[in-house]
User: Fold this.
Amino acid sequence: MFDVTSGYVNYHVIDLPPVITLAVFGGVLGSLYNFFLDKVLRLYNVINEKGRTYRLLLAATVSVCTSCCLFGLPWLAACKPCPADSREACPSIGRSGNFKKFQCPMHNYNDLASLFFNTNDDTIRNLYSNGTDHEFHITSILVFFIASYFLGIFSYGLALPSGLFVPVILTGAAYGRLVGMLIGSQSTLDHGLFAVLGSAALLGGSMRMTVSVCVVILELTNNLLMLPLVMLVLIISKTVADAFNANVYDLLVKLKGFPFLEGHAEPYMRQLSVSDVVTGPLQTFNGIEKVGRIVDILKATGHNGFPVVDEPPFSDTPLLYGLVLRSHLLVLLRKKEFISSSTASASDASKHFSPEDFAKRGSGKHDRIEDIELTAEELEMFVDLHPFTNTSPYTVVETMSLAKALILFREVGLRHLLVLPKTSKRAPVVGILTRHDFMPEHVLGLHPYLFKSRWKKVRFGKTAFSNFF
Assistant:
């Protein structure tokens, strides 16, 4: 896409200090980008919760402010005469081009307007282009960098199509150009190459991806000779940014409230057993349960799975039969395949259902208990849950390490994990674990003393590097 530096790239040891400086400050700017984006999105969430009208007004307000910046800021830049050795028309005609006339006379161009009034792809290509060290004034690059940095933050999260990747590449290209103009005299590198490295630095500082970003940058520029410099910039910028906050995608997952589980167990989890995080009253169903009780529990809770326990006369002692899903219970209530007594039915109720009845619905098409209408007579009837129960759910003993349970839960991809008692004198099931029960916020909320434990300090304590800054 940006095949602009495919020529031979030559760099020496003397070029490393400017490149390292660019990477360090790129990591700082990337972490600040994430910090500001988190604060702005929290504000947007408060506004968006007020309704669709507020969402549209917010998008319109930011759009108007963006347009005012794009049309107003180029007036601050002075006109520059067209370069005599230009390989394209000056001033440019049409949407693309590196020389926008704006308010300038003939044979002159406005360098800041050339950056603002192009598409993102053309602007990035212009900034990446080699042999253009004198086409942009340092003040114009500084204004464009500040504007794109903050406009990218305020544009994300609105009710309009916007992203993070290309705006960060664009902002990073302006940042690299700016660094090249400030300290490029100490290096033999072209300003266009500084722009490419600036994009890599800001991507590494914001998104913390190394290998994938390295491949993307090399594919965009079609130059394998830049691999060592891009690798160095990405490693340094990511390391610096990691000392301040998490990557932008982790912040977004946390902001949306998604219970994302890390691939490893936190050290303090080795001190706990699964029984230490089981909370709340456990809701269970009998093998043959009254319809009214099922409806009451479904309305009172938002759980998606319920243990099914057989009691006498179906078993000698209370026995865990399996796990039934909320979606399956709703299908049973909607189909109204009930029985009149609490004794086992001679016929198999599952024959009245097809596999499509229990198929997973698409997004936004789930059944709701409030949409199912039942008469008073139907609420007094019973439903046999045995044919619709998963009789082999994953279970753990209550004394099992929480760290081991987390690895099992995540590696197998479970949604529910039943906790069984250590002795047979208690209820057949003592709890059920879901993804939320493994979240650090939940565990540390139940056991706040772990904040002060030495294991907690090893994992979550501030590093000397972050304290230094």
Summary: The longest strand covers residues 319-325.
